[in-house]
């Protein structure tokens, strides 16, 4: 499901951003797959190595890390997928984040229902509800 969301987000970025090009559907699917794998494997290492910069810039350096991930994937790893420069990667990664965030907000859980990702089931054991009344 996340791969589909990433694929849609990369397609939107390739359509809107002038420096990002995709030759075909297979290039798009492969680029989304490699971007997902790179974000799962390389991004945590880059975030850990750039932690001082992230702290000093109050988190804005994460945008640079995201741009680097897109730029690495679009630098010739996938035939037919190209990211021309850093600024295209920077604004493209922001656009990919903005598109994929609302698309990935809902996923089916193991109970078959659709929940917002931040949904946490209430813990029933050991927690008492407060008995209160409103005084006006």
Please provide a written account of the structure.
The protein starts with a helix and ends in a 20-residue tail after the last strand. It is mainly alpha-helical and 136 residues long. The protein has one domain. It is extended and about 65 Å long.
Query: Residue-averaged pLDDT, rounded?
Result: 83
User: What's the N-to-C terminus distance?
Assistant: 49 Å
Principal-axes shape call: extended
Placed side by side, the strands forming the largest sheet appear as 1-2
Structural class per helix/strand content?
mainly alpha
Give me the Rg, rounded.
Answer: 20 Å
Structure annotation, total helices: 5
Number of strands: 4
- How many structural domains can be distinguished in the coordinates? 1
């Amino acid at each position: 499901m996340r791969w589909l969301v990433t694929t849609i987000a990369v397609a939107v970025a390739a359509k809107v951003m002038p420096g990002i090009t995709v030759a075909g559907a297979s290039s798009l699917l492969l680029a989304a797959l490699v971007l997902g794998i790179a974000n799962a494997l390389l991004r945590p290492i880059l975030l850990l190595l750039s932690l001082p910069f992230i702290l000093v810039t109050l988190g804005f350096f994460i945008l640079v890390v995201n741009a680097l991930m897109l730029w690495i994937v679009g630098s010739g790893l996938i035939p037919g997928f190209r990211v021309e420069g850093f600024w295209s990667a920077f604004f493209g990664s922001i656009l990919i984040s903005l598109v994929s965030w609302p698309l990935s907000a809902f996923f089916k859980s193991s109970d078959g229902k659709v929940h917002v990702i931040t949904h946490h089931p209430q813990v029933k054991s050991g927690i008492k509800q407060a008995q209160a009344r409103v005084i006006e």
